[in-house]
Every structure is written in C-alpha cells, then in structure tokens.
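Hi W., the F0G complex you wanted:
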Amino acid sequence: MTALIDRFRSRLPLSASTPVVSLGEGSTPLLHCPRLGKLLGVDLYLKWEASNPTGSYKDRGMTVAVSHALESGARAVICASTGNTSSSAAAYAARAGLPALILIPEGAIAGGKLIQTRALGARVLEVRGNFDAALAGARELAERGTHALVNSLNPYRIEGQKTAVFEIIEELGEAPDAFVIPYGGGGNTRAYAKGLAESGLTTPLYSIESNDRPNTLASAIKIQTPVHRPQVEASGAHILSVTDDEIVAAWLELAREEGLFCEPSSAAGLAFLRRRTDLQGARVVVTITGHGLKDPDIANRHAPPPMKVDADPDAIAAAAQ
Ligand code: F0G
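Structure:
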C-alpha cells in the first residue's frame, strides 16, 4: 500500500514524526477516453478519483487532515457534509481511533453516502436546514475546542487534495492544456490552483458549478453559498455553470461510452465539455470526483429496470431481442 503522505511528504506541511493515518488513498488511475473524447472534440483523460478508499477524492485531504489532528492531540473530529466528506471523515477517524461527529443537511444527501457514513461508526446528526447551516454548526463546535474541523476550511485538506495535480502531471509527463473539475464549496478548486502554482504552471483550470445551487439533483454540490468563493474567484479559475439536464446527459454518456459509473456531480465537467467550448482539440483532464454507487436513487431513476423472465432458455433468448 502506498500512503499518499509517504508519496508526497516533501510537498506536504507535515513532519517526519506525524503519525500517518492512511487507507491507501491517492495514486488513482488516469484513464484515456478516446471514444468519449471524440464525441466531445477533445483529447480526453479522466482522473478517476472514485478509486479512492471511500469512493471519492476527499480521502486525499482527509488522510492529511486526520493525521495532523492526531498529531495535534485532537480527541474527536467534526464536519458538515453533503455526504462524501462525511464518509471520508468517518473512515479516517475510525482508522485513527477517534470519534467522528457528522452534520448533514436533513434529507438531502445521497443514500449510499448516508449508509456508508453510518456503517463507519460516526455519530450522524441530521440538521434541520441546508448544508450552509450544518457547516455553521460544525465551525461553532470546532471553535469551542471540543472537535477538530475536517471540512476543507482546514488547510491540511487542501494540502492533501492538491496532490491530484502532481499525479496527473507526473503520469502525462507534462501539463495538459486544461483541467476541469466540479465546484461545490470550492475547496477542491483552491487545492488544484495551489497544486498548479506549486508546479510552476499557469494551465487553465475550469471549475464547473450548478446553475441552480440550492436545488440541483447533484446533491454533492448542492451548496447555496460556497464558503471558498472569494478565493476561488481570486484563483484565476474559469467558473462556469451547467444545468441538471446537462449533468444527467453527460453522466449517462460517460457510463455508456466508457463503462465508467460516477455520481452525478462528478459529470459536471463533462457536461460543460459537451457544449462546443474553446477547448476543441485540446488535451483535457477532467476529474471524476466520486463513484456512482454513492447515489443509487438517481441511477434508479435514469437507468432502465431489468425485465423479468422465466428461467427458460427460449424465454431468455426472446427477451434478448
Ligand atoms: N464532487 C463531489 C463528488 C463532492 O462530494 C464535492 C463536494 C464536490 C465535487 C465539490 O467539491 O466542495 O471542493 O468544490 N462535496 C462536499 C462534501 C461538499 O461534503 O462531501 P468542492
């Protein structure tokens, strides 16, 4: 197992004595996707972050944040989440032997993420309110000193997440023409901008948000007020928005053209590329942030249900037509 912290220690603000809390995160596949790339008119690579231990890119930041929290003597961690941060925080806290307190917006996170977070032993509180309200609560408790905050306001999260940029450049042997990622709270946009700056690059970074933040079906990025917005706007990232219909179309297309099943928010970057953008012909890396199994209800609504047949070869052959 390669721990992300061991692979990138010289570029992370950790000491040699920081205890490493790892589940084998990072070193995720960079997949060349010529069929989908042809449809989109770009030389397409996907950074498949669904291969992280809890199924999303959050693990890159969480290994660093929880390792640092442990070194600092924290006795518990806390976060607000639309579901992926919570799964990751619960997993790394369990690995570190720390309790995790999770605040989620009531009724608003995907089923797979809620089950995952619960199964990992975290105490889960459903806050009557949206993600912003849950985050305000988490910040307040962190300020009281009882819990270490492991949302992306924790700078160690950003440090860990920037390593995706290092991996992409290392594997391609050079920078691509553009990076494209989804934009929820904006922590990952800051992380990519930092990774680019530390690599001495000015490669364009496209950060794609929902055009209807409070209501989007892409629940991971259903965040009314992105907490990192000022820094995202100052980062030089190109901020663009897509509709739910565009997200669903891109998400289905990825699954059917390339055999890759992601969660809807992860398809925001591909939804943007489906428009005729000025990136035609360019080598583009789109980061797929989370696994499709995280959100089975959305998939259930859009994928054809199975047909029932008798256990009889003729009936099966007839149904195959
Ligand atoms: N993609 C996925 C799968 C996410 O879970 C998130 C954020 C984003 C993209 C957006 O990233 O917030 O750094 O701009 N999920 C957070 C959570 C909010 O609580 O799991 P961002």
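The first strand starts at residue 30 and ends at 32.

W.
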